[in-house]
Amino acid sequence: MSKLEVDLSGRVAVVSGGSSGMGAAVVARLAASGAGVVVGGRDEARARAVVDSAVAAGGRAVPVIGNITESATADLLVASALEEFGRVDIVVSAAGVVHRADAIGTDDEQWRHVMAVNVDGPFFLSRAAIPALRDSGGGSIVNISSTCGLVGASGLAAYCASKGAVSNLTRAMALDHAAEGIRINAVCPGAVETPMLATGHPSGRTIDDVRASNLASIPEGRIPDASEVADLVLFLASDSSRHLTGVNLSIDGGYTAQ
Ligand SMILES: NC(=O)c1ccc[n+]([C@@H]2O[C@H](COP(=O)([O-])OP(=O)(O)OC[C@H]3O[C@@H](n4cnc5c(N)ncnc54)[C@H](O)[C@@H]3O)[C@@H](O)[C@H]2O)c1
């Protein structure tokens, strides 16, 4: 399959959730395009493996371990980019969690955890990065939201609330920082083949059941892999999308067109 080619030489990116799934695919594409990348993750071994693979392919990357629900982690990700690479141009919030339940099946702790990772995380990271992006003369923030940020989905109450929040946070921040040359967009994937797709389903529901029910609702009739979302993130991170800000781009095989 052909890949989007962009030149990010001299640029520096910070990616939360960079040690798995879409975040790891984004790290690989950013590093291969010439950007220095700070790989945020919670698991040192997994983050190190993603960094090693980017470096083996000729890229520049460093791991930074921390919990994105704490603003100090967001501050550390940005400070590490400045220390290692001297600037920040691109920020990708890919860290996320899902809780698969309706409101009644979501206790206080589960609600707060989903909101903390999926909403506080992108908020903390954007807030930490904006001064550095200003110093770079502008830049691009890309939040990984979801089709659940654009439309409702049953059995995903807290997740839909969190993704709706990050999709609209994206629009609001885009307005605040457009005149500074800081573009802020979100991508809204439908089902994607990552570890999350298989996570948190009621017992007895196999990954084949999950895939079959997703496929039945996707007009294109296929579930993409993480690299397809990474291509869209790369486009939004690059100057090719220079007049594009405040948008939530769905990448869902037609799911939200229905
Ligand atoms: N897979 C899908 O079908 C799908 C669809 C739409 C949107 N998304 C969104 O895409 C993003 C990436 O998810 P993925 O599918 O690659 O799943 P994934 O589980 O492979 O990756 C999620 C990443 O988030 C990290 N993370 C979770 N909690 C964290 C915390 N407290 N601090 C720091 N990092 C934390 C995990 O360590 C992991 O690296 C998420 O925001 C998810 O909600 C996923």
Tell me about this structure:
The structure is a single chain. This protein is an alpha/beta fold. The protein has one domain (12-251): NAD(P)-binding Rossmann-like Domain (Rossmann fold). 43% of the residues lie in helices and 15% in strands. It has seven helices and seven strands. The protein has a seven-stranded parallel sheet with strand order 3-2-1-4-5-6-7, sandwiched between helices. Helix 1 runs parallel beside helix 2 (44-56), helix 1 crosses helix 7 (226-237) and helix 3 packs parallel to helix 4 (108-135). It is globular, with a radius of gyration of 17 Å. The mean pLDDT is 97.
Report a brief summary of the structure.
The chain is an alpha/beta fold and 258 residues long. The chain is built from seven helices and seven strands, in the order E-H-E-H-E-H-E-H-E-H-E-H-H-E.
Give short descriptive properties of this protein:
Rossmann fold, binds nicotinamide-adenine-dinucleotide, 7 strands, alpha/beta, seven-stranded parallel β-sheet, 258 residues, 7 helices
Characterize the overall form: globular
| Beta-strand residue percentage | 15-25%
Give the CATH H-level superfamily: NAD(P)-binding Rossmann-like Domain
How are the strands ordered across the major sheet? Answer: 3-2-1-4-5-6-7
Question: How does the major sheet shape up?
Answer: 7 strands, parallel
Structurally, how many domains make up the residues?
A: 1
Low-confidence stretches: none
User: What is the CATH C level class, in words?
Assistant: Alpha Beta
CATH topology: Rossmann fold
What is the radius of gyration? 17 Å
Order of helices and strands: EHEHEHEHEHEHHE
Q: Strand tally, please?
A: 7
CATH architecture: 3-Layer(aba) Sandwich
The assigned structural class equals: alpha/beta
Give the N-terminus to C-terminus distance in angstroms.
Answer: 27 Å
